Amino acid sequence: MFGIDVEVPGMLNAAIKTARSFTGQVTAIKNEAEILAMPGVRAVVRIAALAIANEDAGSQHPHVPQSPRRNAVCVVADRFWQAKRAIDALDVEFDAARGRSLER
Question: For the whole model, what pTM was predicted?
C-alpha cells in the first residue's frame, strides 16, 4: 500500500502550482470561476510564501514586500485526479520581474 492509496472518510486532495522563482508571486487567476465549476473541485487557494527557517520574512530579499506574498496556488477537490486536472487547466499568472527564473 502506498500513501496515495490511503483514503479517510471526508478526505480532500490538492494539487499545487508554484511560481518559477523564489520571489515570484501570483498576479492573476483568469479562469477561477471555470475551475470552481469543474466536477469535484471545492476551492482554489492562494498560498502565502513562507519564510526560510530561522529568518524573518524577507530578510535575505529586501526587495520583496513584507505584506503576505502569495507565490503558489492550489486546487482542492474530492479526488486527486480532479485536483490534478483542475490545476493543469488553471490559467494563473505569476510575476517574473522580482527575481531570476529557475528555468534555463
Answer: 0.73
